[in-house]
Every structure is written in structure tokens, then in C-alpha cells.
């Protein structure tokens, strides 16, 4: 049995970043060498700094936030807020030695579910060198 | 409001070495308004501390609470049952709140998680600027509501100094207004420029912290 490290990736995406809501993957999916869970957000600004930090604390190896394009936000500046929170949360994770690269962001618009999966694949590749999340499985 | 900023997390982590169960306490008043010590910040710092301590091979249990006000005994008392179960506290309140906890619960180490920095106003989202230094001898009535004590780098009463930049900015920072420039502009708008020519007397600093620790006694409010 292989014990190859398969990072667990969480993709938080703005509902407007995808082209067709009917073809979204639900639940945890198995990618090529990673596991991924997709969570649709009504707006990426719904995610606060504390949420991003807690996700890493709970053992997720990598988080990818996919807001819509900057001038497409239905709340005008929701994706701009999300980007600033992401930047702040990355700095906090760096400060405690967890590595900023566990959090990342990629704007999207009119994406297919396959393209979203490809973004998750990229994220998994970026996170793999960081290794397992040391918080994974830790009882808090 | 009283404004504070997070201490560097490694500084807090250093204090927590050797402790097993820690309570992070916020305050829902001033430090919540300046996004340093309210419930949001408590719930952000707690997981960060857990992660930092695990990385440090010194895992700790971290629980959280946010009081309505950490500077009022009635609210502080609410922590009594929880305090008995922890061996250290990190307070995200201003220095007043930290001291209130330390006074009420003197048997438990209380560590500040923030540096209290100013009495300030929120100028715009994410930007706070000092407006008062609690000098104890308010001059705002003579300076058209603009404080030269808090907002002039030299706290001069007869300004401006010779260092005002073009555009009315302070010589120490191009992003800070020269307060005497603003006072002059306001005086001009009100037709009161002549009043600025009057030399202001030396300020009485005895009612500020220069006069020693401050106590305010109101007999009418005491029993």
C-alpha cells in the first residue's frame, strides 16, 4: 500500500466565478494525487481572516479562494476585500511558521468545473512541497 | 476610542511557553472597534497560537471569551469560573483591561496580546489617527477644535513651526497634516485669523501624567 502524500485541498469559490452552476462537483473528490472539496460562496468576501486561519488549523493542507473578476463583483468590492483578507491571513500564517503558501487565490470568471478542478490541481502541486499539515489529526 | 495593535505573535508565544491551558480574552468595546481585540480578533489569534505552539513542540489548549468591557468589574467578574481552569491569560484589551484582569485574578499570569497606542478616531476604514493624549488641560476651545497637543509632533501651542511642508504637511511625515496649517485654514474660514496672533500661555501640565498617576474623585458618586 502506498503512503504517498495526497494533500487535501479546499476550494472556496464565488458562485459567479463559474459558468454553469449545474455541473459543480459536490463533496470530496479524488484528483490526481490529491483530495479536493469545493465550497461555493455567495461572495468571496464572506470569508474572513479568522475563517482562513481556522481552516489551516483544522488540518487542510491548502486553501484556494476563487473570487470573481475585480470589476464583476455583485457587491462591487467583495473580491477586493477577499484579496486583502487573504494577504493578511497569509502574513499571519507566515508569522507562526505555518507557511503563507498554504493559502492562495486565483480570480475566475466563466470557469467550467474542469477548469476549477485544474486550479485545484495547481494548488495541490504548490502545497505538496510544504508537506503534511502538522495540525492534521491533532485534537484541539 | 482607545486604539491598540497586535503584538508580534512570537512575542506572545514566548510568554506562553510552559503553560498548558490558556484563555484568550477580548473586549467588545474600543479594541473591537479598532480591529485589535474584539471577538473576531480573539477567534483569529486563538488558532494561530495553537498552531505556533504545536510548531514549537509545546502544544497548549486555548479557549476564548470576549467580554463586553474588560475595564468594568461587573463584566470582569464573569470570567471567574473560566479563570480557575486555565494557567495563563492573554488579554487583547487595552492596558486598562489587562490591569483589571490582573488585579481581579492576581493568582494567574495575564499577558497583553496588544500594545495600546493612542486615543484615536477612525478616519476611514482601516485607518486610525490620534486625536487626544489626555493631557488634562484641554485647549480645543482656543484652537478651533483641532488639537495641537496630540496632532503636532512638537505639541506646540503657538504654531506652526518652521517645518511645515508645501501643501500643509508635517516635516516628520508627508502623510500627516500640519495641524497648525489646518487650524489656520479653519480660522480663516471663520474670520478668526487675528485670534491666532495672541500668544498662548505656557500650558499647565500638572493635570496630565506629568503630575503623577491620575486619580479622579467625585464625592457625589460615592457611597
CATH architecture of chain A: 3-Layer(aba) Sandwich
The CATH superfamily title of the largest domain in chain B? Response regulator
Calculate Rg of chain A over CA atoms.
15 Å
Chain oligomer state: heterodimer
The assigned CATH architecture of the largest domain in chain B is 3-Layer(aba) Sandwich
Beta-strand residue fraction of chain B? 15-25%
Rounded radius of gyration of chain B (Å): 22 Å
The largest sheet of chain A, given as strand count, sense and whether it forms a barrel, is: 5 strands, mixed
Number of domains of chain B: 2
Q: Could you tell me the number of beta strands of chain A?
A: 5
Largest sheet of chain B: 4 strands, parallel
Q: Per CATH, what is the topology of the largest domain in chain B? A: Rossmann fold
pLDDT < 50 stretches of chain B: none
Order of helices and strands of chain B: EHEHHEHHEHEEEHEEH
Class by SSE composition of chain A: alpha/beta
How far apart are the termini of chain A?
A: 30 Å
Binned strand content of chain A: 15-25%
Give the topology string of chain A: H per helix, E per strand: EEEHEHEH
Q: Which class of the largest domain in chain B in CATH terms?
A: Alpha Beta
Explain what this protein looks like in three dimensions.
The complex is a heterodimer of chains A (140) and B (223). With 140 residues, chain A is α/β, with parallel strands linked by helices. Chain A has three helices and five strands, in the order βββαβαβα. Chain A has a single domain (8-130), classed as 3-Layer(aba) Sandwich (Rossmann fold). In chain A, α1 (49-57) crosses α2. By secondary structure, chain B is an alpha/beta fold. Chain B contains eight helices and nine strands. Chain B has helices spanning 9-16, 30-33, 39-55, 73-76, 80-83, 95-104, 148-151, 179-190; strands at 2-6, 21-27, 61-67, 88-91, 110-112, 114-124, 127-132, 169-170, 173-177. The longest helix of chain B has 17 residues, at 39-55. The two termini of chain B are 29 Å apart. The mean pLDDT of chain B is 96. The A-B interface holds A 48-50, 53-54, 56-57, 92-93, 95-98, 134-135, 138, 140 and B 8-10, 13, 40, 43-44, 47-52, 54-55, 59, 61-62.
